[in-house]
Amino acid sequence: MYDVWKNALAEIEQQISSANYSTWFQDTSLASTTNGQIVINVKNTFYVKQLRNRYYDIIKNALQHNNIKVDEITFEVKTSNKNRVRPREVVTTPNAIKEHTKTYKATTKQNTTNNNGLNSKYTLENFIVGSNNDLAVSAARSIIDAPGTRYNPFFLYGGPGLGKTHLVQAIGNELLKNNPDLKIYYTPISHFYSDFIDAIQNGKGKEFNRKFQKLDCLIIDDFQFIVNKEKSQEEFFNIFNDLYQLNKQIIVTSDRLPSQIKTVDERLATRLTMGGAFDIQLPKYEDKCAILRAKAEQIGAEIEQEAIEYIAENVNTNIRDLEGELSTILLMSEVRNLTPLELIQNGSVNVNKTTKLRPTSPKQIVEKVAKYYDLTPTELKSKSRVSHIMLARQVAMLLLSKELGLSTTKIATEVGVKDHTTVMHGIKKINNSLKLNFTLRDQIEEIKEKIYG
Q1: pLDDT above 50: residue 85
Q2: E strand intervals along 222-354
Q3: Average pLDDT in the 352-365 region?
Q4: Which residues, in sequence order, are CB contacts of 5 under 8 Å at separation 6+?
Q5: Which of 24, 126, 318, 345 could cross-link to 161 by cystine, CB 3.0-4.6 Å?
Q6: C-alpha torsion 139→142→146→147, nearest 10
Q7: Residues 271, 277: contact at Cβ < 8 Å?
Q8: What is the chain's percent helix, strand, coil content, to nearest 5?
Q9: What pLDDT shows up at residue 104?
Q10: Is the dihedral of CA 364, 365, 369, 370 positive or negative?
Q11: Regarding beta strands 72-77 and 154-158, do their DSSP bridges make them parallel or antiparallel, or are they unpaired?
């Protein structure tokens, strides 16, 4: 069966891009082929959806070309029971709970940082691919296969806690796995800045520069913190140009595009995105379920699907908070000798990671949005097509939907438009703009602060 799947994969590889093949097929296996019922094992539920929707016919044809009867293909998440544990004892005393907490956290955090700055815990194997990051992962795999070529520089952006650091460090670790002789260096931009200042003060500016010239791959994290550091920008610009001319791989992360970072030199902003800019967005419900399941399996913990779905439904901030809630529930499960679902059902946990408490009324949101854009509520709700008034109106639509959960018909009434289709169009337009327009993101966050302040 291994040879059959190996041959089928070889055929599939010829029909799709190398990045897509690496992303979707690298970790698959053929489980059974009984009576035309094909079962293929995959990593998580998101893979099931992608393979079924995008590659079903390709897989079917490849198997048939290898003399396998195919009536139906089923994709199943391959779970491992290895090292799974059930709660065994009730820990009751404060000291025992404290010690148990320390031990539990130690088993879920095994960080090994090398002198190249990379943390060995960040790998592609434990990075969960979802609809929120699949393009970025495909580009990352291409970099691993051929560093310094297609995606160079590789610019990755998105909000905090979404996995940017994990992905770029995973690239570095995979590159080293393929070629241990490569010189790779990961550093947050704040460390780059501090080291540069120290070098200048100690008369070692040239040595600082030479250290970077020897690299095969430079990974810079949290680039947005370079704001107002003109000398550091200039030094980084020079290092960037030298490495780029030598076809060395450059990887940069930020919470926004370079052009949207105040005081960043235009030349540098342009160069940073000339290899392509890829964003990581908030995970969708299916992605969150896959992340939670994978994280539980990594630490050998049992958790019911209903508990996973409960966490996924109630954590709407980022992956970091999602994993934090999972760790808390698993720890409480061990301490209280209850399953995660039992904890949830008896009210022992209350997962609700949203941004803030809801505002009191639609009127409050409309007033705050209007004031932010220097308008009156009447002007915002007018039929004016002036661009800044339309923007305010559409922002109000989005906030009324997200913060209060109002129907589009109700929103139409609150902002003075004639029907729900106008509201649907306005919300869609703002959501599309938010993918690239970080200025608008900042504006909306400021408005929300004023609403909840």
Answers
A1: no
A2: 249-254, 277-280
A3: 67
A4: 28, 29, 30
A5: 318
A6: 30
A7: no
A8: 55, 10, 35
A9: 45
A10: negative
A11: unpaired
